[in-house]
Structures are given as C-alpha cells and as structure tokens.
Amino acid sequence: MTDNVPFKHLYLVDGSGYIFRAFFGIPPMTRPDGTPVNAVFGFTNMLLKLRDDMEADGIAVIFDAGRSSFRMDIYEEYKSHRPEAPEDLIPQFALIREATDALNLPQIEMQGFEADDLIATYARQAKEKGIDVTIVSSDKDLMQLVEPGISMMDPMKNKIIGPDEVFEKFGVQPDKVVDVQALAGDSVDNVPGVPGIGIKTAAQLITEYGDLESLLERAGEIKQPKRREKLQDNAEMARISKQLVTLKQDVPVEVPLEGFATREPVAEVLRPFLEVNAFRSLLARMAKRLGDTPMEVADEAASEDGDPEYELVQDEEALVKWIADAKLKGTVAVDTETTSLDAMSANLVGISLSTGGNKACYIPLDHIAISESGDGGLDLLGGSADRPKQIPKARAIELLKPLLEDPSVLKIGQNIKYDMVIFAQNGISVSPVDDTMLLSYVLEGGMHGHGMDELAELHLDHTTIKFKEVAGTGKSQVTFDKVSLDKALDYAAEDALITYRLHAALKPRLVPEKMATVYETIERPLVKVLADMEQRGIKADRPFLHRLSNNFAQRLVDLQSEIHEIAGEPFTIGSPKQLGEVLFDKLGLPGGKKGKSGSYSTGADILEGLAAEGHTLPTKVLEWRQLSKLKSTYTDALQDQINSKTGRVHTSYAQAVASTGRLSSSDPNLQNIPVRTEEGRKIRDAFIAEDGYKLLSVDYSQVELRLVAEIAKEDALRQAFIDGQDIHAITAHQVFDTPIEGMDPMIRRQAKAINFGIIYGQSAFGLAASLGISRKDAKDYIDAYFGRFPGIKRYMEETKEFAHKYGYVKTLFGRHIHVPSINEKNPMRKNFGERAAINAPIQGTAADIIKRAMIRMPTALDNADLSAKMLLQVHDELIFEVPEAEVEATSEVVRSVMENACDPVLKLSIPLTADAGVGRSWGEAH
DNA sequence: CGCATCACG
DNA sequence: GACGTACGTGATGCGC
C-alpha cells in the first residue's frame, strides 16, 4: 500500500450546500444572455480564493448525485418535504459543474450517497493518512465530523468552525452531535426525532446519560412524566433518526484521494468559461494565469491560427525549460515515438510535448542517423550509423520523470495507454492523465473512429502528416529511430500539438453533454487497469503449443490426401473458390452461386447441410477447416506472440473500438480463444499459471439476458432470475407450454436460441435458419414469445423509436451509443441500425458493469491483502493469476466485486451472479 | 486490399 | 412481391 498522497491539506468543498448559501447570500447577477449567475460567481470566486489565498494543495468539490440516497431505504420520508429550488437557481446547478471543470478541480458525486457521506468518507481517509482536512461548508450535518485534524470553514463568512463552534450550536462535543440530532430531529431534512425534544433538551439529556442508547435504556429514570413517555414511545424513531443523521464514512468511493492534488486551470478552458459568464473581475485577476498580460492573451489566441512553432530539443537546458513551462501551465500533451506498435516490445525513440498555444517540441532520444558517406571518412561498411546530437536517454528520463508523475500536472495523450506502457518500461508511472481518444469515444462513440488523424480532420479541420510520409511504406518502411530529425520533429511535435488542441476542443463538452460521469468513472480510470494487465501478460506453454501444432499438422496432411482422393484431383482446400468448383461443378452436389464475387458459398452452414445429406467430402472439409484454423490462428501464431523478454503473451486492449462500449483484444486476440469444441479447448490448456500459482476464471452468468429482463422490465423473466431458475427452461415453458419437469433438451435448446436471437433482434427467417425449422414455426415461436413477454416487445419498439429520434441509444450507466445508420433510406441499412440499436443498450450495459468491476478489482484485492493479479478480460469473464494459498479468498473477493459492480449507482431488481473456476491452466479453470 | 471464413462473447 | 435477414469483435488465407 502506498501512502504517498501528494498534498498536506485537503479541502473538501460541499458543492451542493454552497450553491444554496451563495444563491441567497449574494445579490442577484445576470450575464449578458440573462442567465442568473450569482451563485456561480460566488462559487468560482470562493474556489479561486481557496486555491490562491489559502494555497490549498488538495481540493475536491463534492456534489449530491440526485435526490435518492440509501437513507430513503431506511426512512421513506427522508428529505421528502424539500421545496423545489427557486427558478433562478435551477440553471446555475449545471454552471457550477462547469465552473468546477473550468478550474480543473475534481468533482465527485455518487448515486445513492449524499455529498455529506462522500465528504465524511474522504475526510476519514485523509485523516488516516495524516492529512489535515478542512470541510468547506457550514452545514450543521457535517459538524459531527469535527475532530483534531478535521475542521470546517464557513465559506460565506470565512469563519473556521471547530469544536467550540460545534458546542455552541449543539451543546455537546462533536462526537455526540449525532445523538443530539437523533433526539431533536430536523424539520428541514424531515428527520423525525422525538417530539417535544429540541436541541437544548437533547444536549442536556445526552450530557447526563452519555449517549443515545444509554438514554433510551434508562429512559424510565427520567423524572418529567411527559418527557419520559415521549422517549419511551419514540425510542425506535430516535434510533432510525440516528441512522439518518450519521454520515457514512466508508462509501466505496471510486476516485482515490491522490486525485485531489491541486492542478493549474487550463487557460483554454477557464478563459472561455469566465468570458461566457462575464466574470470580468475574475478575468482580470486571472490574467497572468491565463497567459500573461491581456495583450499577450490576445496575441496568443491569434497566433493559434499562425504557423506552429516546433522546437527540436537536443540539450538539457532546452528540456528543462519545457518541463518548467509544463509545470507552470499544469497541463501538457505528451506523445512517444517508438520502434513498434506493440508497446511491450517497442523501444522508446523520442518524446514530444506541447503546452498549448502553437508550440510543441520533440525530444529525440534514440535516433540513429544513417550518415551520408563521403565527408567524414569514418563511414566505410555501408550503412554504418552514428547518433545525432541527443540528450542521453537515461538523463532525459530522469528529468522528465518528476513532471510525468507530478499529480498536479495533467498529462494529455491520444491513446495514452500506449504511452503509459512505454513509460512504465522506462520506470515512469504517468499520472494523472486525460485521453483525447477516450473523450471522443464517450462523446461520439459509434459515429466514427477515434484515431488522431480522423479527429484532427473532424475537429480542427487539419490534415496531419501521415506516418507513412515520414517512415516510408511497404518494404522500404523504416522504424522511427531511422527517421531524420527534421522530419521526426515535424511529425512528432505535430502529434503533441494536435493532441493538446483536441483536448481543448473535447474536454469542455463532457459536462454539457452529460458524458462526464461515463468518462470520469469508467473510461478514464480503466486506462491504468488495462495498462497493468497488458504489461502483466499471461504465461503460455510453448512446448505444448508446439506439440499441438505438430499433431494438427499430421492430421491435416492425412485429411488433405483423403479430400484430394475423394475429389479425384489435388486442389487448394483453403480456397473457397476452388472448393466450390470441386463440390458443385465437379461432384455436382446441390447448391448455388452466391455473393458478388460470383463464387459458390461454402460456409460451414452450407457444408453442414451437405454433410447431413450423407456426403463425405463436406464432412472432411469441415474437419480440415477446423484444424487448419486452430493451427494457423492459434497454435502457430501464439508461439510467435510469446514475448522473448517475459516469456508471456501480452495482448493489447482497444478501449475505443467497439461501438457498444466493449473492449476488443488484439495482437494476439485473447478474447476468441476456442472453447466450443473439444479440439479447440485444448488451446486453452496452453495458457498456464506460474509455478506456485493458479489461474482463476470468474464469469457472469447470463448477464445480457438478465439485463434484457431488467431494462425491459419484464416481470416474468425478472422473477425467474430472482428465483434462480433455469432461464431457458422457463422460456420453453412459456413459449411451448411444456412442463419444466423432465423437459426435452432439444426443446430447451430451441428456447435458448430464441432467447439469444431476441437480444439481437432476430427475424423469423434468422431463427428458422439457426434452428433448422420452417419459417412458419419460427414465426409462431417468436409471436408466442412476445405474447408471453410483452415487456420485451415494448422495449424493442421504444428503443427503435428513441434511436430514430436522437440517433443514439443509452446504457443504464448513461453511455451514449450512436447508431447513425438508423436514419438511412436504404431499408437494409436502416434495419441493420434498428437491430444494432436494440442490442447496444444490453451489450453496452454489460460492458459498463464489467469495466466497473475491473476498476475496483485492484483496490479490492489490495484491501483484502491478496496479491492476485488480473490478467485478462473476455467480455463477461475475468482471469486472474493467484498464489495457490490465496485461491479461496481471492475467488470470494472477485465474485463479490463482480456481483456488486453496479453499486451504488444502480440498484438492479435482479441479482447478478458470477461463477468461479480454478486450475493450472485456463482450460482447467474455465 | 477486399472477401470469405471462423474463433469468441 | 422482392429484398434481406442476429449484435459486437479480430486473424487468417486466398486471389486479384
């Protein structure tokens, strides 16, 4: 456990509380468009003072997430009397969030918990680490937290609230405040308390009896008959009240304390915010920070259209200047140039930085100059290379490390996971980070790709220099270390500058477009988790793969002869064209042409049909294809993918590729390792644990079907899951009217196919094809299904309608998935869009859930003192490498984190369940 | 480089 | 009446 929190004094700002105080305490103000902004001004001003005058080095702004909280489960009436917010205050709620972002301060909220609980939790965490805490609020409900090391500050009066002030208010020391509140109640929050007892009496009673429980136990001793009676009659109400007023200090918060180190505001974000709201006094005060004198501000803004200034950094002096500038600005775009797209085998060649404006630099570190022979005379053995002037790599790393690890400097990257892995290889743990690729992904997922070239075109109307233009293409392509420094400068510096500008264009959109939560609580924290998994890799048994490969090879040779024998001539079995000609022309099997290529279709379904008619050739070909696939894609390719340094396989997870929010895996893809056939499953035995360790695999049971039931609010299905019943059997029972007892496995199989087909919006045609039944039967099944589960039908219709109207659909966690094809004229594409729209919320919510589990996993394991490492994710499954002695405990922690991954944001009406398996290999564990 | 095929959830 | 027909991925080999 690291206790390295980068600040000494943490200010926890009660954002929700402040806005009300400011609204009533500051005279009305409006900005030019008439929007009231008095509370926003007060808030912004207060935060600026906090960070500048108080020199606060740690600040977090905490908000209430919504109206509901766990307290309503305790007492339904809690806060039920709250009047609506005044009309002039309502538009200011969103602006306050913007202000927080503009000041580059973290804003924290969690569904199900009030701001007060989050404040209590963070205050406790900070105190445990020896950090002083000031709670910026005057809310009496927070006074229970005051203790040595934790104080409060009234932001309107600028007054410190310590134990004396709390005593003045409640008549007891802070640690007894909840007992007093429990007795006295609170009409504003609708906490009942005991009738007839106010703060004065409560304080007196608590002082006399010690605490609430003792008082209630000894209530009989009270002399005043009325008071005694009231206390005895309302003991339970008092206990409930105490629960209501006691703040939760162990909320499973997602943002760690370390994230609250104060960061400099980003001028490009703060300036427009202050301008739009016409906060002129603040603009003037911030002029320096926003880019020196106002005149220079104007100059800089103008120069962004001018030619970029790229600097080649070749000595320490120049590098130190850039580092100082980045530190001053608090934000820097970073990009690495390497020798490979595979981060685990790449060598760092250079680093580019940009701090905005029109400036960027490139720091070459490991370039090789191919000398143009003729002048020096040293160059004899053609192609001998020497190094151009560069800062020694180790020295540059040493200088950059403090900046890249500085919690008060935001590092921006485009696909920064890659750079994080590169830096990690060089001993640098980059933090905190923002990723323009992920910003684009959460804002415009499904609309287009999220590569830098595309984003630059789209948002900046700028055509980037292509990698091919500097490194060449095809056979003559060279690695980046062989690119000349002038070309490398133009290419690399541009990448950093574009990244900086993309950040300025995209980040401010998060809050107004309501994507801040998805970005901040899911995608951004996941980057580090994935980077760690990729670096860890999984051990692969090369000799085993080799033997398997030879075995497949032998059988392929035999099969090949048999196939050629039956065909009567040798041909390339792997060529669908040649195979089709052999099957349908030469042997005259029934079948037809298909597809634009004009060739016969020879897919597995066709061959299976032919095989069922008793033809031997298709059977042999199917077997050949299976083995050929296993050999080329798995047993052969995987051996080549074993990293020579680590002896392990390191996949790469793409976080911004799948439109639904899923991850994808490549190089190699470890999300499609065979499992469905016995032969294929053997490949899983090649993935093994280190000696003394086991592999643990935990997968969600039927997540997507559970989510369909949940999202569609389909009670019949929900009940089945709540009761833990066999969902496919239930479906069969409903659709075919078959008793569940002694059900024919074939019937259940059909129901299973229907269940999955539904998730994808399958038609009668598709179901008929996948079950090999008539279309009429398929249609009857589907009709019966919708008849029994009308909620599903309704969900499908409503989702299509929503997608047509808005062009996107949403997951339960608020992720937007754009489905542009839904409004196309071409009915085929439109239908395609509709099916995608139906599926996306389901697949996407499942993706959100497992991502949440993954983010929490390292901390959960650490807290349980377990050293297991998460290695792989396969959509609904997580794979860990676990010390043998910790298997049981780890299994429980992992399951619990996975099953509770929706907490506390979302309360599903059905449980999620996860099943664990353990083994020496992945095959055994599954 | 597009297409067909097939591996996974 | 025809058209097409289940969502989301990545890797491989063929053939142009």
From TrEMBL:
3'-5' exonuclease domain location: 310-511
Presence of the UniProt keyword Hydrolase in the record: yes
Molecular function per GO: 3'-5' exonuclease activity; 5'-3' exonuclease activity; DNA binding; DNA-directed DNA polymerase activity
Keywords recorded for this protein, A-Z: DNA damage, DNA repair, DNA replication, DNA-binding, DNA-directed DNA polymerase, Exonuclease, Hydrolase, Nuclease, Nucleotidyltransferase, Transferase
Enzyme class (EC, first level): transferase
Subunit record text: Single-chain monomer with multiple functions.
Family named by the database record: Belongs to the DNA polymerase type-A family.
Job description of the protein: In addition to polymerase activity, this DNA polymerase exhibits 3'-5' and 5'-3' exonuclease activity.
Protein name per UniProt: DNA polymerase I
Organism: Kiloniella litopenaei
